[in-house]
Every structure is written in structure tokens, then in C-alpha cells.
Write a structure and sequence with these properties.
It is a single chain. By secondary structure, the chain is of the alpha/beta class. The protein has three domains: 89 residues, 3-Layer(aba) Sandwich (Rossmann fold), CATH 3.40.50.720; 203 residues, UDP-N-acetylmuramoyl-L-alanine:D-glutamate ligase (3-Layer(aba) Sandwich), CATH 3.40.1190.10; 133 residues, Alpha-Beta Complex (Protein-Tyrosine Phosphatase, Chain A), CATH 3.90.190.20. Helix content is 33%, strand content 21%. It has 16 helices and 20 strands. Helix 10 links the parallel strand 10 and strand 11. The radius of gyration is 22 Å and the shape is globular. The N and C termini lie far apart (47 Å). This is UDP-N-acetylmuramoylalanine--D-glutamate ligase. It catalyses: UDP-N-acetyl-alpha-D-muramoyl-L-alanine + D-glutamate + ATP = UDP-N-acetyl-alpha-D-muramoyl-L-alanyl-D-glutamate + ADP + phosphate + H(+). Cell wall formation. Catalyzes the addition of glutamate to the nucleotide precursor UDP-N-acetylmuramoyl-L-alanine (UMA). Its EC number is 6.3.2.9.
Length: 448
Amino acid sequence: MNTIKQFPYEQVLVLGLAKSGAAAARILLENGKKVRVNDFKKEEENQAAQELRHFGIEVITGGHPLSVLDDVEVVIKNPGIPYDNVIVKEAIHRNIPVITEIELAGLLTDGPIVGITGSNGKTTTTTLIYEMLRSSGEKAKLSGNIGTVASEVARDSDPDDILVMELSSFQLLGIQTFKANISVLLNIFEAHLDYHKTMSHYANAKAKIFENQTEDDYAVYNLDDERVVELADRTNARKVPFSVTRPCKDGVWFDGDTVYFKDEPIIKRNEIVLVGDHNFENILAAIAASRLMGATPEAIRNVLTTFQGVRHRMQFVREFENRTFYNDSKATNILATSSALNAFKQPIILLAGGLDRGNDFDELIPYLDNVKSMVLFGQTAEKIKNTANQAGIHDVKIVDNVEQAVQHAYAQSESGDVVLLSPACASWDQYRSFEERGDMFVRAVHKL
């Protein structure tokens, strides 16, 4: 078990629990730090808080009194807690550093880190890099926003383990010294503005993945995204571009037939089984990062000729009576759903809806040509229905939940149709997570 190195704080407030907060509190206690935990959820309903109190950690629940900051030297905040939270604002006012749990991960491992961020495609790219490294015989471990707490994985890692981390803007905004040996920035699109407030703040949060890199590191970036190119200019690392549209002999590129890493042919496009133009960009990024980290061309080809996607991200569920069902529950914004719709030439029945963040859905209209009907649910159902009507789609049904949506979509489907769950919205109005929403879809499909 690894110990924290170069962490100059003795008294720590962990603000917000969930998986990352609970993990950070336990790790800090193991390292001899004095830990206080503050979580808004009441302790009688808060199993994590009860367990931490059992370990001897000071636990304050049911609210956010400013006194939780007394004698505190640093705050480790749950990534989802915004910076206008009363405790976060007061900590900043008192000049107390506010960091996130991935900062601990960087202090717990001596092994290399591959960090992946972007508005869309993070999970697919992270998983591809992991699979390519594992297929090459490397000791890779998944961590970060993909579902496994980064600091826990780092604590239990060996020096030759490669930590492949999916990193959100929320996590990156709270780093001080964290550094990826290979950083990957996939794309920048409008997202999470309820949290970051402006597009500039959001882009700057993503760019922090480059912040501590040196000339001994690599920065993999999307040459086809102007915002990404601008942000990549900030790095001191060696830049490795990827492009679908133009040759880049110092990175990964596509000549219309074959994908190359520099001058080395890797795979022909028609051999890749993962569908979608957006996924093709993810694939190029994964080839760059994994090849730089030592993956072999043979291993990369092996993964790309077999990998069909991750759960909840353009996940093929089944074919039933010549209808094909895809679970894209992780499509929590308009861009992700647009990319999913663009992946198919067949008629689509689209299942969509969810949390209302105040935006409209007009940007979907250019991608609805193949959509023959929609089944909608959640807070945004009426908004998306209005968008559908503007696009000339009048076969629209509003239902209570995803299970009903599957039943209705199947009942109205025809041979050759794609039934696609791609909500274009977060899930929190009805479900605890996009995973729970996607799992309901999968179960409903298998019940048909």
C-alpha cells in the first residue's frame, strides 16, 4: 500500500462524500492526517458517514456550518460540489486551498498516468487505451471518472502499473500538482455551464490537464478542434496531434483508407467494428496514447477488430425481430446525441429526455433526418417534442419512464429499425445515474 508523498497539510476537511470523498477520508486517515468530514445528507441516511465515524473520523452531517473550516488547512471537495457552495466560498475567502481527490492520486503513485478528458468520448477512449495496453501485456488499471476512485487505485498500485484515468472538468479544476505523463484532450463543446458559468471557464478547466506537464511528457490533442488546438498551445509537453481530416506525420491520422501512427500503418477503417464517426476520433486518440505508452500495433488491431463499445455508450444490446437496440444512456448532452444519431443510416426511433437544465434542443434538428419517431420522458419531454415538431416529426409519444419507452418503441417499430436510447439530458430528474437509466433500458429490451 502506497503512502502520500509531499502533502503539506495535517488537518483536512473532506467536503461531500459519495465514493471519492469516502475514499479520500480513509486514505488520509491511513496516512496519519486529522480528518473532518462534512456532508449535507443526514447521518442516519448516510452509510458512508456512519462508517467513517466508526473509524474515528470527525463527521458533521445535515448541513454546512462554517465552523467545519475551523483549524482546517485544506479542503478536499467532491467534484460535483460547485464553487458557489457556502463552504467552498468561505474556504477561498480564508485562503484555504480547495482541491479534488485526484490530487491525492498523483501523490500516491510512482507509476505513469495517462489522463483523458474532453466534452464527449472520455469513457470510450479511456477504455480503448486500457484494453490496448492490457492486450500488449502492460499492467494497466482503470481509474477516475470512469467509476473507480483514482486515489484508491493509486494507493494499491505498483510502480510499473499504468493508471489510465478518465478526468472530468470538475476533477481537473481542483488540482495543484497532479500531472499526467500522457494527457489526452479529445474535444471541447458547450457543456456543464450550470457549473462553470462560462465557456471560457469550462475550457480553462479542461486545459488544466496540461498545466503541470514538462517536456518529458506527451500531450495528445485533436487537431480538428480549434478550441483544443488553442488550449494545447499552453502545454510544455511534446505535442502529438490526431486528425480524421488531414495528414499529421507527427501523430495519428487517416488517409481515407488506413489509420497511421506517424508513418506506421495501424489498421484499415473497414476493419474497425465500433460504429460512429465520433468514435473514430476517439479511436485515433486511443491509438496515439497507447502507442506512446508501449502498446504494440498487433494489440491495437486486436482490440479494434473486436471492441464494440462500453456500457451505456452506443452499447449494442441485441437484435430482435430485425430491430436493433442501442443503449447510449451516457449521452447526457445534445452533442453526444447528435453524434449517436449521425452513426446510423437506418430509420431510428429515438428515446430521449431527462433533467431540464434550461437549454432548448434546436441544435438537434440537423441530425433528425433519419428519425421516424420519438418516445420521450422526463422533465424535458415537452421541449424535445417541440423540437421534433419543428423538424417535421409528428409521431411523438410522451411516457413516464424508460421501461415504458422501450415497450412503446417496439410496438411501433418495423423491420430494419434502430431503437436508440440517447437522452441528450442528464438522468437526475428520475434516476440516480445514467447507469441506472441505461440498465433499465437494457432490462426492458431483454424482456421483449
